[in-house]
Design brief:
single chain
Length: 332
């Protein structure tokens, strides 16, 4: 069983993830109406998070190399390869796909398809890479999530016949969610701590993405709008995306995975779709379509069913103290 201190750290980290992920969806969608392009926002995220992570790298560099190479002794370059995979998935893959999606689809779609699809992808990845089995309640919850995704995505595809491009954003959100799910499962498989995993992503993106994109922007090879953006927008995006969304949320998310495991972690984020979709109505003046409302309801029900917050016929009513109290903590 995990210690009380470890459980408290996991619970606090889960709260941070809920707040930051909700804010990420709202800020990213609002950013699509301003000056910077999707690649610009990702570049600022990688630049600021990488620079902020350098002092931490000086302190934890040896621990990072040891953690990435754990279990792969004798295989040259294994630690570097693992770090590159994590940086690609949680950095370049997730950020570019998600930021690009907000230029095509509204928050209601992102709320359903980005965090809402995470349990589906995680269940598949955990089954393949960790050998984790899905409970009856979890399978029922995933069925509801798939139904919600199909409702939202199907409506977008039908609208495509009228020239709408929302379906592009939906596909990008699904792909971004897949990248993040693989990141979480691999962190669990390689037994990486929160600091080491976040450092690998931040430093990897700083080295491999920031210089090439800066050069391409200077040469006019990419449609960058950094030169036209006001300094206030650049500073805000760098600090929020790089400091809060990547470093703070990255550390918190990886700690939650270490405490509860990847499947339970994705179920803990059940409130993110609801909070972000509802907040977008007054903050971004985005009305929820019937398809988005239906998809949101199905995904939320699936997430709650998967956590045990809603009793299912297969498992009966919850035991006193809730699902978390009834189930033993997963091994680290």
């Amino acid at each position: 069983m995990k210690s009380a201190r470890g459980q408290a750290l996991g619970a606090g980290s889960a709260f941070v993830v809920l707040v930051v992920w909700t804010g990420f969806i709202l800020v990213a969608r609002a950013s699509a109406t301003r000056t910077l392009a999707a690649w610009d926002i990702a570049w600022l995220r990688f630049l600021f998070s990488g620079v902020l992570a350098l002092p931490l790298l000086a302190w934890r560099g040896n621990a990072l190399r040891a953690a990435l190479g754990r279990g792969s002794e004798g295989r040259a370059g294994a630690a570097l390869a693992r770090g590159a995979v994590l940086a690609f998935l949680a950095g370049l893959g997730y950020c570019m796909l998600a930021y690009s999606g907000f230029f095509f689809a509204p928050v209601g779609h992102a709320a359903v398809l980005l965090p809402g699809s995470l349990p589906l992808w995680t269940a598949l990845a955990a089954a393949l890479l960790l050998g984790e089995r899905l409970t009856a309640a979890g399978a029922a919850g995933l069925g509801l999530i798939v139904a919600g995704d199909l409702l939202v995505g199907g409506a977008s595809l039908l609208a495509a016949f009228d020239g709408a491009g929302t379906w592009r954003g939906d596909l990008l959100f699904l792909a971004a969610s897949l990248c993040w799910a693989l990141y979480g499962v691999l962190c669990r498989r390689w037994q990486l701590g929160a600091v080491e995993a976040t450092l690998a992503v931040a430093v990897g993106c700083l080295v491999c993405v920031v210089p090439p994109y800066a050069l391409a922007a200077l040469l006019g090879l990419v449609p960058s709008r950094l030169a036209a953006a006001p300094w206030g927008e650049i500073l805000f995006q760098g600090l929020y995306q790089g400091g809060v969304s990547m470093l703070v949320a990255g550390l918190a998310y990886t700690q939650v995975v270490a405490t509860y495991g990847p499947m339970r972690t994705t179920m803990i984020t059940a409130m993110v779709p609801v909070l972000s979709a509802l907040a977008a109505v007054p903050l971004l003046d985005e009305a929820l379509s019937p398809a988005a409302l239906g998809g949101l309801a199905l995904v939320t029900a699936g997430l709650l069913l998967g956590t045990g917050a809603v009793p299912s016929p297969a498992r009966g009513p919850r035991r006193r103290g809730g699902a978390a109290a009834a189930a033993p903590a997963e091994p680290r």
